[in-house]
Amino acid sequence: MTKLWGGRFQKSAENWVDEFGASIGFDQQLVMEDIEGSIAHVTMLGAQGILDSKDVEQILGGLAELKHSAEAGELEFSVANEDIHLNLEKMLTDKIGPVGGKLHTGRSRNDQVATDMHLFLKKRVAEVVDLIETFQKTILKKAEQHVETIAPGYTHLQRAQPISFAHHLMAYFWMLERDKERFNESMKRIDILPLGAGAMAGTTFPIDREKSAELLGFSAVYANSMDAVSDRDFIVEFLSNASLLMTHLSRFAEEIIIWSTDEFKFIELDDAFSTGSSIMPQKKNPDMAELIRGKTGRVYGNLMGLLTVLKGTPLTYNKDMQEDKEGMFDSVHTILGALKIFEGMVRTMTVKTEKLHQAVHSDFSNATELADYLATKGMPFREAHEVTGKLVFTCIQRGIFLLDLPLEDMQSESKLIEQDVYDVLSPEAAVRRRNSLGGTGFDQVRLQLEKAKACL
Ligand code: ARG
After folding, report:
1. Which end is more exposed in the chain, N or C (fewer Cβ atoms within 10 Å of the end residue's Cβ)?
2. Torsion angle in degrees (nearest 10) through CA of 354, 356, 361, 366
3. Cα separation of 113 and 108, whole Å?
4. Which Gene3D superfamilies would you find in this protein's record (predicted)?
């Protein structure tokens, strides 16, 4: 079979060489973008008088038909035609004859593939941003229902201080807010058109790159043709943003998993987001959360993969760059899926308020309250910390909690302690009184929810 670039060759490659070099197996996902890019390119060629209007019309007609077939999923790609660009060009010439060969005037697959990738990511990043925002809305809604639900807050996964459960959920809202911001900011660098860079040095044809940019909805064109065909920064940046997003989702997933255990039982996942065990009938596993945690690995891997591919490549295009695709597609697919699943999982989960209530009433997470109480009464905080620690130790020995300790016993450590200590020690008071800006106090959490709404 003759290659579209076969003129210089005397001998054809072995089948397995073709197979190894082909990207059609995965870059067919760029079919729409490739056609869009070609439509803009040929329109520009016509407007510049590089191709006459009859040719342009014929090519546009052929491309429209290809687009139609692509939408219907009717195109049949072949490895012999290597990649999406050559496959489509072949289909075009099969359809409209040799005039189809004029489409590639003043263009190279190098600027073409870079253009496709920019177009593709522009659309997908917009989808990612939308899904992040949907998820944020769900978190916000859940948080609104749990402002006054007190839960244990942790450091080192040890009970630390009581918190509003809404405050805990909202921490993820803000991580996602920064993720959204990062994806939005990256748009500026995705929104640049490489088309017109040719193979790498520009072209002798009097093309109008600004016109192509306008037709494709890009805000700018690459200023340097060599950079244009070599740049994969925008993909690295996407993979990096995707990795950080997955870090956040993975941490949240880990909490969902912990919270669903019998040991915690702070939440219960909806049946729709859980699975059973094939052997243990009692099990309800948080598979989706585990899978999101697990899939974080491949998203990191895709970032490392592309960085490594790029690091040794001289300017400009090298075939190595074909390796930019599968990881990117995979990360797009993974984060879109993870966001959708996570949103549903949080929306449908039940928060076990009684269990949380019970938890905060049977621990020492109010110990800081006692230390703060003593400090407020003038005792240096270090000393207050020591006194409180001793009282905690006394409680542990007796198998009781601070609220159960009689006043005389407290006073044996410090005369500063009076009856009002019991009001301060209640977990509700502990939360309410943490009214510093950004703290877990109910008023602060309400303020935070207002700020969050303003971000959506
Ligand atoms: N399939 C190639 C890729 O994805 C398209 C660009 C090929 N360019 C070339 N000069 N071989 O990178």
Report:
1. N
2. -150
3. 9
4. Fumarase/aspartase (C-terminal domain) (1.10.40.30), Fumarase/aspartase (Central domain) (1.20.200.10), Fumarase/aspartase (N-terminal domain) (1.10.275.10)
